[in-house]
Design goal:
The protein is built from 15 helices and eleven strands. By secondary structure, the chain is α/β, with parallel strands linked by helices. Strands 1, 2, 3, 4, 5, 6, 7, 8, 9, 10 and 11 form an eleven-stranded mixed beta sheet that branches. α1 packs antiparallel against α2 and α5 packs antiparallel against α6. The longest helix is centred in the C-terminal third of the chain and has 28 residues. Bound molecules: pseudouridine-5'-monophosphate (PSU) and manganese (II) ion. The site of manganese (II) ion has 4 residues, from loops. It comes from Dendrothele bispora (strain CBS 962.96). This is Carbohydrate kinase PfkB domain-containing protein.
Amino acid sequence: RNTPKLSSRGLSRAFATNAPSIRIQKLLDRKAPVDIHPEVLDALQTKKPVVALETALVTHGFPSPENYALASSLEDIVRSAGSIPATIAIIGGRVKIGLNKNELERICQAPAVKISRRDIGAAIASKANGGTTICGTTVFAAAVGIKVFATGGLGGVHRGGELSMDVSADLGELARCPVGVVSSGVKSILDIGRTLEYLETLGVPVINYGPTREFPAFFSPRSGHYVPWNVEEPISAARILYSQWQMGMDNGALITVPIPQEYEAAGLEIQKAVDHAVAESEQNGISKSGKDATPWLLNRVGELTKGESLNNNIALLKNTALVGGQIAVQYEKLLE
Ligand code: PSU
Ligand code: MN
C-alpha cells in the first residue's frame, strides 16, 4: 500500500491534544481497515482545515475518464481555499481517507459498489472497491473527525416517496453525524418539498449560502421552497457549525450553495430533461429499483441533455468545493 502504516506513537501524542485524534486512536486500537493519507492525518493532528470529498459521484455519477479530471480538480480547488482535501473511498476492502494519485485513478476506473452506511461492512469483508455516497462519506468523515464535506447533489425523498418510502439514507446520516455538508441542494428528480420536511423532522439545520433563503434545486438556484436560515460569508456558516457542536449536539448540518448565476438559463432547459427522465423511470420500473434509481436518473438526464447537464454539474461541484474549503478554514480559526 502507498499509505504508510500509522505510527501509534505519533498518535498518542496527538491523542492528548485533540478530538479527531481520539477517534483515530480508537480506530487504530480496533485495527480498523482504515488508511488515512499522511497529509490528511497530519492536518487532523495539527488542526489544519480538512474537507471531505465523496466518490459515488465519480463511480456512479460521471463517466470515465472525465471523472478523474473532475475529482482531481475538486481537490485542487479545496487546496486553493486553504484546506486539505480528503477524498474518501473503499479500495480493495480498505477505507481510504484521502487518496493518492494511483488510488484516485483506480476508483475512477475499476468497477465499484455504491456505498451507503449499510453497505460498509459487506464491502470491507468482500474486499470490494466502493464509491461512497454522501451517506457513506459522512460516516467516514465523522469517524476521523472531519467537520466539513463538500459535494454536489444531496439524495432525498424521491417523487412518490410517500408511497414507495424511497428516502435517501443521506438524510438520516445528516442527523446522526457531526459533519457540515456543503451541497447544491437536491435535484428535482426528487420531491424537494418533502425532502425539506423530512430534514426538519430529523432536526437537520438547512442554511442557504447566499442573499436569500430559497433552497437551490441543483441545476437551478431556485426551487420555490424556502429554508429558515441563510448566510453570506464562510465565517457565518462556520459559526453556526461551531455553536451547534459547542453545545455537544452531534447532528450535522446542510449548507446549500446555489449554482452560479450564469448557469441558470441552461438549468431551466435541463429541468425539462429531468421531468422526462423521471416519467421514463416510472414507466420502466427503475424508480422501484432501490439504490440503482438515482444513478439511472443522473445518467439519463446526461443522455437527454447531450452532456450539458454534466457541464453544469461540474460548475456547481467546483463552487461547493471552494465554499467548503473556505468554511473549513474559518471553522478551524474558531477553534484556536
Ligand atoms: N444526486 C445528484 N448527484 C449525485 C448523487 C445524488 O444530483 O451524485 C449521489 C450522491 O452520492 C448521493 C447519492 O449521496 O447519489 C444518493 O443516492 P440514493 O438516492 O440512492 O441515496
Ligand atoms: Mn433510494
